Amino acid sequence: MSSHTAQTELKLIGKLLLDAELHCETGLHVGAGKGSLEIGGADNPVVKDAFGRPYVPGSSLRGRIRALLEQAHGLAIPPEMVFVSKRRGQEVRIHQSNRPDDEVCLLFGRSPLKLERVTGGDIETTRATPARLTVYDAPLDGASITAQMRENLDDELTEVKSENAIDRITSQASPRTLERVPAGARFQVRMVLDILCEEDKALLARVAEGLRLLEDDTLGGGGSRGSGRVRFANLKLRWRGRSFYSAGAAEAELLAAGDVTALQLLANDAELSGKLSQ
């Protein structure tokens, strides 16, 4: 847990800007959730922008990192979770607490409201916590889809994976198709971590931990069936202190062309805090 307390005062010290490439090691499916199907199209299309290009929504990447951190820190258990939706068959449960040192709530924010715990009655969060971590939509790097790849794709930028669900009694097949961004594609990721107090400087280690967990897990749908294995590369971390915004001071480059391991080592370096000055 962090060293935050109920008396911790928040005032912008600066921002950490993390840029990285997200490489698809296997096909990636982040669903569009369309209510209708196109004739001849896949049953489950990927999300695309207004120009028809696949992208990774910041909400999908942010939510997956949050879920992995909750699991890693033992917070994905009924007493630690609340319902944010109770629609039958579509329940959504996430971690939420009222503890001032709860790093998940510090990173992803919380609002003062009354919520129903999965077990143990209601919880009323009286502590409003601004989210420190912002994750932007990650656009596709079009150059990563090579001419050779395009020759074998079902669409200009995506492939269609065919799957079968087999009835265990009758052996009857129920075919389905899944649109995916192909292995080899890469997306441009940007995250911004607001440092609002001295205690926030330790939160970079949680971000690095989340990225490392994701590399050994999956992103998007179909993960247990082979989709969604990703890797982060060419990480660049910059520091913009408050004087960058108030007086035009120069930014500081803390990491260039690194990987998640390098980011994690930097985040846990005792000397990092001294480099993050206003």
Written overview of the protein:
The chain is of the alpha+beta class and 278 residues long. It has a domain at 14-62 and 131-275. It contains 7 helices and 13 strands. It has helices at 58-72, 103-108, 147-151, 203-215, 242-247, 260-267, 272-275, and strands spanning 14-24, 55-56, 81-85, 92-95, 114-116, 122-124, 133-135, 138-139, 159-166, 173-180, 186-195, 230-241, 252-258. The strands form 5 sheets. It has a 5-stranded antiparallel beta sheet with strand order 7-11-1-12-13. A hairpin with a 6-residue loop joins strand 3 and strand 4 (92-95). Helix 1 (58-72) packs across helix 4 (203-215) and helix 4 packs antiparallel against helix 6 (260-267). It is globular.
Count of discrete alpha- or pi-helical segments spanning 4 or more residues: 7
Largest sheet: 5 strands, antiparallel
* Strand content range: 25-35%
Distance between the amino and carboxyl termini:
25 Å
| Poorly predicted regions | none
Instruction: Specify the oligomeric state.
Output: single chain
Mean pLDDT, as a whole number? 90
Strands ordered across the widest β-sheet: 7-11-1-12-13
CA-based gyration radius = 21 Å
Shape: globular
How would you summarize what this structure contains?
This protein has 278 residues and is of the alpha+beta class.
How are the secondary structure elements laid out?
Elements: E1 14-24, E2 55-56, H1 58-72, E3 81-85, E4 92-95, H2 103-108, E5 114-116, E6 122-124, E7 133-135, E8 138-139, H3 147-151, E9 159-166, E10 173-180, E11 186-195, H4 203-215, E12 230-241, H5 242-247, E13 252-258, H6 260-267, H7 272-275
Antiparallel strand pairs: 1-11, 1-12, 2-8, 3-4, 5-6, 7-11, 9-10, 12-13
